Amino acid sequence: xxxxxxxxxxxxxxxxxxxxxxxxxxxxxxxxxxxxxxxxxxxxxxxxxxxxxxxxxxxxxxxxxxxxxxxxxx
Length: 74
Prior knowledge:
Blueprint: H1 7-20, H2 24-54, H3 61-73
């Protein structure tokens, strides 16, 4: 797979790599891995939430408000 960066992106990446003493390819790989980890975690959380809704496990907006109000009164 190849990803085409704009000249500005390439310059920023090269400058960052030089400033940090790291390899530009390593930086890109780490950025992609971090992005994928975050996105996968998010999608899994959404899927768990939707499964909970399908099972009828939810609370109303009003219940959330009441719980928050109770926390502030404590």
